[in-house]
């Protein structure tokens, strides 16, 4: 592509508006199969992603951005702040705020102490240790929840894997492998439970038919609330770590 991949595009304030010019973080993405230019917000990076079909011009992309610039800035401003794995950082675990506490002189990797995630050892290893800790917690908590749902439906998953998918919280492969985003460990237990039940139910029905939803509803009663929680709070989970 001829234009830079990522840049800040400055849009003038709308005429007559008492507003500064807008500096919009933009990522240009080549989209070989697209028919037209499209625009979305990437919640993880907090930027506008403009997908460009072959032969689309930068000028046409900018025109679209200009048309929806105010909307884009509103959406980006509304995103939860990015949380880096650093001492003092706050993040959810099971829906409860926890704080990362660095204990350089202690030993034992990373562990919970009340609502502190205690991370031992050198600061250089802290990020990695928090990430490993959260993934291990996710694997443990998800595995514990899969078992009763699988038993209730008389199915056995082939394997349980963790991923860092941006677009889905869970998936069920045709071979019976269940995959989940490790980020679910941050959500309240009942939300995680719904996602787990959903994927386990796919072991019975590889579709979203009435029969499928009947299985899900046998397993959990919080379906709608969980879907709503993920819709509202989910994007913030993508901005952690
Ligand atoms: Zn599904």
Could you describe the 3D structure shown?
- With 241 residues, the chain is an alpha/beta fold.
- The protein is 36% helix and 25% strand.
- The chain is built from 5 helices and 11 strands, in the order ββββαββββαβββααα.
- The strands form 3 sheets. A 4-stranded mixed beta sheet has the order 1-2-4-3, with helices on one face.
- Strand 5 (90-93) and strand 6 (96-103) form a beta hairpin.
- The model has no long low-confidence stretch (mean pLDDT 90).
- The structure holds zinc ion (ZN).
- Zinc ion binds at residues 198, 202, 208.
Which features characterize this protein?
globular; alpha/beta; four-stranded mixed sheet; binds zinc ion; 5 helices; 241 residues
Write a concise synopsis of the structure shown.
The protein has 241 residues and is an alpha/beta fold. The protein has helices at 58-78, 126-153, 189-201, 210-219, 223-237, and strands at 6-11, 22-30, 38-42, 47-52, 90-93, 96-103, 110-113, 116-120, 159-163, 170-172, 177-181. The protein has two domains: 6-78, no CATH class; 90-237, Zincin-like (2-Layer Sandwich).
Map the helices and strands.
Layout: E1 6-11, E2 22-30, E3 38-42, E4 47-52, H1 58-78, E5 90-93, E6 96-103, E7 110-113, E8 116-120, H2 126-153, E9 159-163, E10 170-172, E11 177-181, H3 189-201, H4 210-219, H5 223-237
Parallel strand pairs: 2-4, 6-8, 9-11
Antiparallel strand pairs: 1-2, 3-4, 5-6, 7-8, 10-11
Helix pairs in contact: 2-3, 3-4, 3-5
Bound molecules: zinc ion.
Second-tier CATH architecture of the largest domain: 2-Layer Sandwich
The kinds of small molecule bound in this structure are: zinc ion
Number of domains: 2
Level-1 CATH class name of the largest domain: Alpha Beta
Total helices: the number is 5
- What spatial form do the alpha-carbon principal axes imply? globular
């Amino acid at each position: 592509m001829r234009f830079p991949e990522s840049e800040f595009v400055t849009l003038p304030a709308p005429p007559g508006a008492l507003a500064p010019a807008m500096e919009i973080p933009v990522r240009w993405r080549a989209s070989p199969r697209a028919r037209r230019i499209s625009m979305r917000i990437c919640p993880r990076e907090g930027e506008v992603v403009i997908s460009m079909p072959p032969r689309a011009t930068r000028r046409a992309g900018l025109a679209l951005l200009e048309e929806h610039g105010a909307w884009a800035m509103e959406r980006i401003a509304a995103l939860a702040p990015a949380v880096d794995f650093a001492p003092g950082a706050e993040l959810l675990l099971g829906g409860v705020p926890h704080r990362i506490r660095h204990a350089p002189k202690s030993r034992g990797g990373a562990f919970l102490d009340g609502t502190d995630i205690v991370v031992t050892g050198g600061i250089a290893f802290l990020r990695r240790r928090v990430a490993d800790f959260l993934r291990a917690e996710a694997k443990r908590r998800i595995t514990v929840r899969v078992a009763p749902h699988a038993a209730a439906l008389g199915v056995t998953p082939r394997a349980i894997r963790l991923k860092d998918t941006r677009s889905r919280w869970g998936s069920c492969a045709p071979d019976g492998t269940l995959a989940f985003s490790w980020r679910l460990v941050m959500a309240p237990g009942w939300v995680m439970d719904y996602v787990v039940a959903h994927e386990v139910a796919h072991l019975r029905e590889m579709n979203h038919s009435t029969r499928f939803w009947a299985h899900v509803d046998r397993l959990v009663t919080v379906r709608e609330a969980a879907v709503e929680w993920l819709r509202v709070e989910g994007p913030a989970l993508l901005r952690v770590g």
